[in-house]
Amino acid sequence: MTDLSGALQEPWPDLRLQREAVGLGMWFFLASEVLFFAALFCSYAIYRSFNAEAFRIAAAHTKIVYGSINMVLLLTSSLTMTVALRAATIQLRRLTLLSLGATAALGVAFLVTKGLEYYADINENLVPGPGFPLKPAATAIFWGLYWIMTGVHALHLTAGIGVVIAVMTLFWRGTIPVQGSTMEGVAIYWHFVDTVWIFLYPLIYLAGRS
Amino acid sequence: MSEMTLQYAPTEESVATSYLDEGHTVLSWLLTTDHKRIAILYALSITAFFFIGGVAIGLVRLELISPTGWFMTSDEYNRAFTIHGIIMVWFFLVPSIPATMGNFVLPMMIGAPDVAFPRLNLLSWYLYLIGASFTVYVLLSGGVDTGWTFYPPFSSTYSHSSVVPAAIGVFVVGFSSIATGVNFMATVHLLRAPGMTWFRLPLFAWSMYVVSMVMVLATPVLAMSLLLICAERLFGLPIFDASVGGDPVLFQHLFWFYSHPAVYIMILPAMGVVSEVFACFARRRVFGYAFMVYALLTIGVVGFMVWGHHMFVAGQSPLANLIFSFLSFIVAVPSAIKVFNWTATLYRGQIGFEAPMLYALGFLGLFTIGGLTGLFLASVPIDIAATDSYFVVAHFHTIMVGGTVSAFMAGIHYWWPKVTGRRYHEFAAQLAAIAMFLGFNLTFIPQFIMGWLGMPRRYHFYPDVFQIWHVLSSGGAAMLAVAYLMPLGYLGWSLFNGDRAGDNPWGATGLEWQTPSPPPKRNFLRPPQVTSAPYQYHDIGRAREEVEQAPVEGRGDAR
């Protein structure tokens, strides 16, 4: 076993307790995040119940191919993240770094796909405002929510990628020895961002396609 | 969470270096991860904002002396009361007790060397500063005129003031309270000293735990509602735009889903502080400890289900009004339990009228008035008549300012010897406490009266019949200003000239008093062991009377 004391932070006496604390703290933070997204999902539900037909029309213009590719990318990234966590826990340095790299790459691929999708949306003028092509008026609410929901999700993913790269760098340079305590919070967060997408996907891409 | 033994760095007695002597450079403060130093940083920043917010409302009260105004335009008037609201709610009241006393005392109370995530703790202060600088920018760029509530469509479409910077400031500072909340919850779960079971936690620790829960679950909804306003204002995404089928009332739901619990974010810590103070200065065990805990939890939970009472006249369905009204009455039950239990704690106590106790007694009276007038407003027919009147203004100021600020001052005075190692001037503090109570009532009782008579809130001009009440209220505000400034003077003086306090000047129980004043970096000289329930004052009696001769080694929970 390598010396793991470099990974221990104040005020914890050992890594086991520190890992428990990081996990617990992250879960509390995610409770907060759930409420953050809940405000959006709640708005979506209310407006969809008010304007069912408009939401059906509006959602039919979403790009399901991009959305589905992204679904595959993100679910796969959760797999690589799980591998990274398990590998770090048993201190397999190279496998940890490889899986973290794969996770970050899949995340970036998601953002690129999302960018292509945004480009296509903008070309069709699907931004509420002058020249917005859809009728009735309430379709603009769907597209307003679309931009905010996917935008906020993409920001969360970007933050996740940043943290994954940061942890990789710390492990790479040996600033922190490879072990699970550091990874615990990162992994839980990554899966959360992934889970949000699992909820966004049907609301955005499937709502107009029944 | 599992029972465990914490290993403390100083395992045996060591020479104490106080946390204040762990470095004297500015950087040693700005980069500190010591919860005690972060508490001081927070205290300085929120005090600055308290006085900025105070100047804003001082100008408003001056202006309202005349029924037709005399030195402000209506636009300036709107901006003055808005910035007062934004600063006082988010930059003073919400962080007030948790970020200062919570940060300083909570880890010590539970026998921990620090909070669970010290660097996150420092980050939360920097988030506060970033949010605060947006607010300062708003001030310099001419202010914002939406009222602190940011209601659309005015905020999203029509206002020509700095709505977006103001919203961003509040958004960012919200994450500072989420960070504090996450930190405190993990701390209470995992860092309690051996023997410190959940039902041996002092009530202040409980109040910090419950308030953290509310912060973590409510604040994100505010963040999202402000994000939606910004999206609509900046990018024209029509979420609340009624012309395409959006619903401005939805914003009110989201906003009050946070902002009603926010009132509990302000008052729960206050309840925690006065529970400590009443027990200590009446030399009594807190009456009905278990019920005090349940009451805190009930208020925290039911507080999430009453937000609709802010929207009785906003077009909610009558059924929703009925339900929200009923739940609002329900939340009064645990509040009443607390008031009765505090009163019962005082009964047959050996009451000392030191400044913390005077402030706490002021809290008790004002919280009761604020709570009872809240019941008026929880009733739909009365609220429909009183909506947006000064009665509402007076009600929530009595809770948020009368209650929370009184308790804040009680806590500052109570823990001052622990934080600084010095005694403050007792008589000056007693005077300030009394002036604050009188000034507060002189400010807000006239507001209750004129509100009941029909004076609407936020109006710049008003009929002559209300002038007498406005003048009285402004006089009270001047008195309050003096009462708020006094502590700056005598507390500042005590920093340099106050008598040395000793470890436990009040003869109080609780782990935070079982360590030197000011405490060492890791709080304790030896690992604390807890062997009994809190508030064992019956054994000690009125030990403070002998303090003058021989400093009492505090006999509390730790033996």
Describe this structure in words.
- The complex is a heterodimer of chains A (210) and B (559).
- With 210 residues, chain A is mainly alpha-helical.
- Chain A has one domain: Cytochrome c oxidase, subunit III, four-helix bundle (Four Helix Bundle (Hemerythrin (Met), subunit A), Up-down Bundle).
- Chain A has helices spanning 15-50, 52-59, 64-89, 93-123, 139-173, 180-206.
- In chain A, helix 1 (15-50) crosses helix 2 (52-59).
- The radius of gyration of chain A is 20 Å and the shape is elongated.
- Chain A starts with 14 loop residues before the first helix and ends with a helix.
- The model of chain A has no long low-confidence stretch (mean pLDDT 94).
- By secondary structure, chain B is mainly α.
- Chain B has one domain: Cytochrome C Oxidase, Chain A.
- Chain B contains 16 helices and no strands.
- The longest helix of chain B has 36 residues, at 74-109.
